[in-house]
Amino acid sequence: MCTSIKKKNTENTLFEKGKKLFLDILKCIVIQLHCIFDYVIDFIFGLYYDQKAKKVSAVKNPLLLESATALAEKIRTKQVKAEKVVESFIERCKEVNTLINAIVEERYADAIKEARAIDLELKNCENSLFLKETRPFLGVPFTTKESNEVENLHHTMGMISRRQHRSMSDATVVAHLKKAGGILIAKTNIPELNLWVESRNNLYGQTCNPYNITRTVGGSSGGEGAIIAACGSAFSIGSDIGGSTRMPAFYNGVFGMKPSEGMTSLKGIGLRDRYYSDSMAEAGPICKKAEDLAPFLKVLVGDKACKLKLDEPVNLKNLKIFYQSESGDIRASKVNYAMRATLRKAVDHFEEIAKSVTKIKIPGSEYSFRLWRYWMTQEDTDFKADITNRTSRANAVSEIRKFISGTSEITFAALLKLIDEDLLPKEDPEWARSVTINMKKYLLDILYENGVLFYPSAPFPAVYHYSSFLRPYNFGYWCLFNVLKFPVCQVPLGLDYDGLPVGIQVIAAPYNDHLCIAVAKELERAFGGWVPPSV
Questions:
Q1: C-beta atoms surrounding 429 within 10 Å
Q2: β-pairing, 488-495 with 501-508?
Q3: Are 210 and 56 in contact (CB under 8 A)?
Q4: Is 265 a catalytic residue?
Q5: Distances (CA, A) of 261 to 52, 287, 508
Q6: Does the annotation mark 408 as catalytic?
Q7: Per-residue pLDDT tens for 75-97?
Q8: DSSP conformation letters of 97-124
Q9: Using N-to-C axis directions, what is the helix angle for 222-229 and 82-100, rounded to 10°?
Q10: Each residue's pLDDT tens digit, 266-294
Q11: Peptide bond preceding 236: is omega within 30 degrees of 0, i.e. cis?
Q12: Alpha-carbon span 335 to 173, nearest angstrom
C-alpha cells in the first residue's frame, strides 16, 4: 500500500512538472509571437510616418531652460522681470504650437498684465525671503490641462457637446498655484473625457511629441507633457487616475509625480465638483527639473504638506532598493532593450550607494490592467452619463451604429470605453479586492519607511500615433500604482537610439513621497534627467 501511495505521489509530481513545463513553453511562444506582432506594427506604421518625422526647434533663450524654482528666485531678487519671463515662454508657445498642437486656449495678454503687476509690486519690496515662504512661485508662468477648471476659460473635456462650456471658478489645485504666485498662460490638450492613452479629441485634434511629431504624447495630460518638454511652460499641473501624469511625462522626457492617496483636492479636476476622499486619482506636478518637485507638491497639497515630510533629509545610503524588470502580463508587450538598459543603469548606480538592492516580483502585477478596470467601477463617476454631458445615458450599440454611419460625435477611444462598460464581462469583485490587498501588504512589508521600488515606465518609448489601439495592455505599467494608491515619480533618464525619451518609475510606501523625490534628484544628478528635444 505504501508503495502504491508513493508511486501515485511520484506520478502527481511528474504531472505537475510536465504541466508547468508545458505552460512555460506556451508562455514563451506567446511572448515571441507578441514580439513579432509588435515588430510588424512598428514596421507598417513606420512606412507611413517615418518620412514625416520632425522635432521642435532649438531653444535660443536660456531662461526657458531654467527650473521654475530658479526662475522664481531670479524674479524675487530682481535679476529678471516677471514680464520678461512670461513673454519668453509665450513666444516659445507660439513658436512650437503650430508643430505640436499642445495649447488649446491661451490667455497671453492677461498673463503679461499680471506679470507687470508683480514687477510693480516687487519694485518696492525688499523682503524676498518672506515672498519665498508665502508665494514661492511668484511671477513664474505655468499651464494646466483643459480638463482642470480655470475661471472664465473653456472646460470642454474635449467633447463636442461641451464646446461652449466655460468654468465659473478655479480647480482647487489651480487656485493653490495662483495663490503661490504662478501665472497661468494657457490650457493644453487632452483625450476626450481624459480617458485614453493619447491626447486627441474631435474639438482640438491631436497633440504631437516634440521629439518626433509622428509619436504620441500620451494621455491624459499629454498636452502638458509636450509643452513642458518643448519649453513652452515652466511647469504644469497634471492629474492621474491611470498614469495620466506619469505617462505623458515619460513619453515627453520630463518629471511627473502622482502623490500619495488623498493628498490633493480633486474639486475642479475633470467633472468633479466637490472634494473626493476615496479615489485612485491625484493631481500632481509635471516639470523639467527634479528640484521643482518638492516645492511644487507642497503648493498642490496645501495644508496637508506636513504629512509628506517633504523637508525631511534623505540619506541615500540607508535606502533599500527593490526593482522589477517587467509586469509579467503576457498580453503586454515585452520590455525592449532600451528600457531594460535604462532600468539596469539606475539599479547599477544605486548598487554603489544604497544599503541593499533586490530584484522582486510583485504578486499579482500581471493583473494590473484587470485590477484597474475593476477599481474604476468603484470611482464616483458615471462615464455613460458624462459622455453625453449628463443630458442622457449613452449606449454602446447605439453609438456603434452612429460610428458606422459617420454620425457619432464621440471618439473611437470613448466608443471602446462604452463597449467595455456595456458588452464585456465584468471583473470578479472578490478576486480583485483579494489580489489588491495581497499586493499592498507585500509592498508595504518590503518598502516600509526606507524602501524604494524601481519599475519600468512602459515596454518601450513613445509609439506611433494610433498604434496604442493595437496594444492596450501596455497601459498596465502605469495604472498598477493607481490601484495601490502609492506615491510614484516618473524620472527621465535620457534618450534612446531613436532620440526618444526613456526613464523609470520610482515608487515608495504611502506618505514617503520624499523618498521618491530624493531618488529622482540623485538619478538626475547622475544621468542628466531631461534632455531638450532639439538635441
A1: 11
A2: antiparallel
A3: yes
A4: no
A5: 42, 21, 12
A6: no
A7: 999 999 999 999 999 999 999 99
A8: HHHH--EEEE-HHHHHHHHHHHHHHHHT
A9: 120
A10: 999 999 988 777 899 999 999 999 999 99
A11: no
A12: 35
Residue type, 241: I
Nearest to 436 by CA among 511, 360, 373: 373
pLDDT value of residue 2: 58
* CA–CA distance, 197 with 462 (Å, rounded to integer): 11
3-class secondary structure, 35: helix
* Average pLDDT value for the chain: 95
Q: What is the three-state SS of 282-320?
A: EEEEEECCHHHHHHHHHHHHHHHHHHHCCCCCCCHHHCE
Cell numbers 510588424: residue: 40
| Residue of 55, 81, 132, 145 marked catalytic | 145
Residue type for position 115: A
CA-CA distance, 535 to 532, in Å (whole number)? 6
Alpha helices in 56-181 (DSSP H): 68-76, 82-100, 108-123, 128-134, 172-179
Contact by Cβ (8 Å): 365, 327? yes
The type of residue at 266 is: L
Taking a C-beta distance cutoff of 8 angstroms, is the pair 357, 323 a contact?
yes
Q: Using only C-alpha atoms, what is the Rg of the chain?
A: 24
**Between residues 341 and 30, the one the model is more confident about:** 341
* CA 230/CA 189 separation, integer angstroms: 14
| pLDDT of res. 274 | 82
* 320-323 and 356-359 beta bridge pairing: parallel
Question: Who has greater pLDDT, 5 or 315?
Answer: 315
The catalytic position among 67, 221, 244, 368 is: 244
State the Cα–Cα distance between residues 138 and 134, nearest whole angstrom: 9
CA distances from 139 to 71, 349, 507 (A): 8, 37, 32
Q: d(Cα 101, Cα 92) in Å, to the nearest integer?
A: 13
Please give the order of strands across the beta sheet that includes 356-359.
103-106, 183-188, 141-145, 235-240, 282-287, 255-258, 488-495, 501-508, 451-456, 320-323, 356-359
Dihedral sign from CA coordinates of 174, 179, 181, 183: positive
Cβ neighbors of 37 (< 8 A, separation 6 or more) are none
State yes or no: is 221 an active-site residue. Answer: no
Decide: helix, strand or coil at residue 195: coil
DSSP assigned state of 254: S
Choose the catalytic residue: 67, 88, 147, 220: 220
Q: What is the pLDDT of residues 415-450, one digit of tens each?
A: 999 999 999 999 999 999 999 999 999 999 999 999
For residue 74, what are the contacts with CB-CB under 8 A and spacing of at least 6?
Answer: 66, 80, 85
Whole-number percent of the chain with pLDDT over 70: 95
Q: How many CB atoms lie within 10 A of CB 148?
A: 29
Instruction: Kindly report whether the peptide bond that precedes residue 220 is cis, defined as omega within 30 degrees of 0.
Output: yes
Instruction: Work out the percent of the chain whose per-residue pLDDT is above 90.
Output: 90
Reference 119, options 160, 80, 63, 159; nearest CA is 80
